[in-house]
Structures are given as C-alpha cells and as structure tokens.
Design goal:
It is a single chain. By secondary structure, the protein is an alpha+beta fold. The chain has helices at 2-7, 11-19, 24-30, 38-44, 50-62, 84-87, 90-108, and strands at 36-37, 66-71, 77-82. The chain has a 3-stranded antiparallel sheet.
Length: 109
Amino acid sequence: MEAEKSCGVCPLAETMEVIGSKWKPLILFHLREGAERSGVLQRQVKGITNKMFTQSIRELEADGLVVRKMYPVVPPKVEYMLSMRGKSLLPILEQLDQWGREVLLAEQV
C-alpha cells in the first residue's frame, strides 16, 4: 500500500481504466470459450451498438487484452480472441458472473 501512495498509482484505478466500461467485461467474458467472429461476438453482447462494439473491441486490442486475426478472404473474415493478458482476467470475470448469479437468486426469494 505504501508504494501505491508514494508513486500515486492506484492499481484498481488502472484496472478500471482498462476494463471499466459497461461493454468491455462482457466482450471479454464472451471470448472465454475461444476465438469468435466479429459479427457473432457483437450479437452475443446484447444491447451493444455497432459504434460501441467497434470502439470497445479496438480499445481492448490496444490494451493488449484481445488479439485480432484477419483472414485474407473475400468477404473479409475477422476473429477476435483473448490474449494471455486477457485470459488472466478470466478468474475475476467468472467471480463477478457468479456474484451476479447469487444476487439474482437472492432477489427471487
């Protein structure tokens, strides 16, 4: 904790900067099973607009959490997959998913 105060960097703030949007954790979570084509992935993230999907996936790629693979075919085929850095977030995302399930179950009682 002292090191954080002295250098002015908050690890949680850094984490939230990278994944702290409504859509980024959902995109990452949907990639946990493996590579997914762009259109399929976007449809899996219910409610996301094309603009927000494009912005979010580009930011995840720039932050090194997602890898984009483009195939040289017509029409263009693009797949996204988690990088090793992105995969390191899976236990945290799965815990958040489990917490959400517990909250929903508690509300049903």
